[in-house]
Fold these 3 entries.
Entry 1:
Amino acid sequence: MSNRRAPHVRVDYPDSVHPSNHPFRRWRDDCRVRFLIAGGAATLINWLVRFPLDLLMPYAAAVALAAACHMACAFVLYRTWVFPGSDRPLMMQVGDFILINLVSMAVTVAISVAFREILMSLQIGPAVAAAVAHFIGIGTGAIAGYIGHRRITFRSERDVVQSSMVRAPGRAAAPAE
């Protein structure tokens, strides 16, 4: 066997098919898509964990404890993969993450309990009503969570500076007064 390497071959791709223009790459590089994937994984854990917890405690408590499992998983995924550029100290991120998720959890529990009652009043069985209601509650809480984490928990100083810039029509950005 020879230790010689094959000569480097350059491939000229048309712009439309260049690997850097591939849709999956654009999606991978978009933090909204990463948030949906990471949040989806954490949400799946949230939703699945509630079923065995339902056997051990009241529905609202099971939803709340499942949401706590979601929070732990989501923090790790969001901090390392979705919003890795934050320069805020870890403890500030943890504190803001908990506060935003407590609000999101309250929304999730309230929506879940309300929709379960609505669905059960429509003669939908309790197990199906609880599962569907919890799914709707999780989705509603996820919207609030994305906004809060993007703007507060994992923001960077660059985001703060950019948001403090005021743009007049036809003029370059200027610092806010």
Entry 2:
Amino acid sequence: MRNAPRNIRRKLADGAPAFGACIQLPTPDTVEIAGYAGLDFAWIDAEHGSMGIGEVNQLVRAADAAGIDAIVRVPDHSSSFIQKVLDMGAAGIIAPHVRDVEVARRVVASANFAPDGVRGACPAVRAVGHLTTDWPTELRRARENILVFGLIEDAEGVENVEEIAADGGLDGLLFGPFDLAMELGLEGDVTNATIRDMNVRVRKAALTAGIQFLAIPGWDETVSMLAAEGVRLFNVTGDRGMLVTAFRSAAAEARREFDAASEENPG
């Protein structure tokens, strides 16, 4: 039997927050670093990240090694891809472009075994420790533990968000401002007042329905403001952004020091 971390489920049950990082680079080391740095989960981005299904498998294994949950943003609503990442041992999925309650229900069905869903069952997959002779126990564990989030990133999804949150069967929602800003002709301006109003609506719909809202501080207000509203899940950073920022900062500091030394010792 495989002992999954269950950080998100455990933290939420205790009324505590859970913090994670978005992983887009196909290197297991980055996921391990996230765990060793004290984060609770890795949001593995198989939609925009530079990775295929094989790399996702290694990133999920790295999450286990570091004792954190792996939540995979799947590239689309393919039942087969959802089944594969859950069979690998991912703690859950994030489905992109959830536009209506029917899409939400189909995604949830893809993540759940019959009779609750349509996920194919197999007693010989990594999620159960590669082989189980106690399928009823593993079935209960899967039903209790798998997390399914929906990403609201289209105008149609915002218009249907209250129904999606209340009746879609999802564990939580996220707000995707960038695609929305593109759809509305705002050229990616996520600070636009219309986008911010949509963000508030999505967040309110999730919390009112009693499901989680996975927030991205900075895009979704500050951690303190979100916590006051009842938000408990936070994606606080990402590997690409953090590396670019750190490299730029290091280069700028080195250039400043070099220029200052050159002025003090010309020639």
Entry 3:
Amino acid sequence: MPCGSNCRLGAYHEAGLSSASRGGLLPAGGQEEIELSTILEIRATDPLMSAVYALRRDVFVVEQGVPEELEVDDDDRVATHLAALSDGRVIGTLRILLHQRSAKIGRMAVSATSRRKGIGRELMEFAAATASRCGAEEIILGAQLTACEFYKRLGYIEEGAVFNDAGIPHVMMRKKLQR
């Protein structure tokens, strides 16, 4: 069940990231800093979804070799999607599906040029707040093994055995939400 069917949809988050206000977000190698201006909750019918799908295609299909026919699925139609914007451009995304008192996060993607700059953390924190507001007591997700440490730093705990999803090793992770 999408979050939007149970609670207010269309929330946004002003999330200016600057080295002065957010410790540790200076990019490595002297790259230009990313200014994340907004995170939006959107539905599958929102005009921004074409940019969300384009980013997901770049990350999952082009970079990671996920078969294109697996990247978009029926859950996209009912999910609440988050889009992180910088200068009006989608630089990060994820989707949230509610299943009773659990929220499932999936399709987390950040553009290659925006990684390691706090965008993923901002998206995940916004997703946790959104899920909690919608009545979820926990978040579950299938993490790529290469991203497990990222999720652990956010309080997620590994559960179960490694499994294959679209040719990529994953493990389930869970986090209890604070009420």
